[in-house]
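Researcher: Here's a chain I'd like modeled. Treat it as a single chain, no partners, no ligands.
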Amino acid sequence: MAKPDNRDDNVVHLQKAINHTMENMREAEDFVKAHAGEMNPEDVADIKAKNERREQAIEGFREEIRDEAKYQARK
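Model: Modeled as a single isolated chain. Structure tokens:
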């Protein structure tokens, strides 16, 4: 038998994912600021592109939190 869907802590998990992703973004930005002069320009561009994808992921997490809030309001 399948385990019932427990959505009670989804927002907590999503918020942790947002926090973790934002921390990774800050670390990447700090690394580039400190070492950009020593880095291959392609590597710098790759890190910046990855941070852009992280920003998109954060927006997706936030949308999931909004969806979860709507679901919780219906209960």
